[in-house]
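Section 5.1 Outputs to date
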Amino acid sequence: MRIAFAGTPEFARVALEAIAAAGFEIVLVLTQPDRPAGRGMKLQASPVKQLAVARGWPVAQPRSLRLDGKYPEDAAAAQAAMLDANPDAMVVAAYGLILPQWVLDAPRLGCLNIHASLLPRWRGAAPIHRAIEAGDAQTGITIMQMDAGLDTGDMLLRESLPIGDASTAHLHDQLAALGGRLIVDALEQAEAGTLRPEPQPAEGVSYAHKVEKHEAQIDWTHDAAAIVRRIRAFDPFPGASSALDGETLKLWAAQAQPGSRAQPPGTVLAVEPTGVVVAAGEGVVMLTELQRPGGKRLPVADFLRGFDLKPGQVLG
C-alpha cells in the first residue's frame, strides 16, 4: 500500500519509521519548513525530514496547504506532489498545519491521524501535557479517520496507558511507540478492509489547548498535588519555573507531601540534600531537581553545592 505521511516532531518520526519497517511504501512526506534552533539559531530540519532525507523519500515543506491562503504557491506545489504520489492512504501525526478538504479527499482511503489521547478527551494541540496536568489516571492513543473538524473524526483503534507519576517527556516516548504500533495495525486492517469506524461519543469532550510559555510560572497558592502535576506536565517544555531573589529557577522534579501551612505559600521550609521543601496552598512540595539560568538540570544535592538556598526565602 502506498502511504503519504504528514508529521514534524520526534513523535511523528517514530510512527514513520514503524510504517516503513512494516513494509509499506512511503511515496511522499510532508513536514514543516526548517526552523532556526540552538544557540546559533541555524536552520534545522525536523526529525521527520531528517528520516525522510536519510531514506530517500520525497519531501515537501509547504508553509500552508490552503490553496486560497497566504501561501497559495506552496499549497499548489504540495497538491501537485500529492497527485503525483497517488497514495492509497495518508497518515498524519503532530504535523502542525490544518488540512483542507482537498488533502482529506486526496488518498483513496482518506487520512488517518495518530492522536495522543483517548478521544474525545483532550482534542487539540497538547493532549499529553493536559492529561498530566489534570491528574488523569490514564491516557493513550486513538487512531482516527480525519474529517474537517478538530479531532472529531471516527475512531478506528484505541489503546490506553497508565500515567502514574510520568512526566510529559517520559509519557511522550511511551505514546510514540504505541502510536507507531497502532498505526501499523490500522493500515494493515485498512488494506484488508476490516477497519470498523466508531463515532466519538458526544459526552466527555475536552480540549487540550496549546501550552504557552507564560504558564510555566508556578503559583504556590495552589495545592501541592496540582503544583507537582504541572511540574511533570511541563517537562521538557516549557519547564516549570519560579522566581527567587530576581533569578528564575527551573523546577524539573518534585513530590507532593502533606503538611500544615505555617508559612505563606512559596516559603522555603527546609533545605536538605534529599529535597527543598516549599509551602503550598495546601500541603508542601519537595523539589528534587532544579536548574539555574544557563546551568544544567541537577539533582537537588548537586544543585545546592553551587546555590545557597536557606529556609525562610520565598519563591514566586
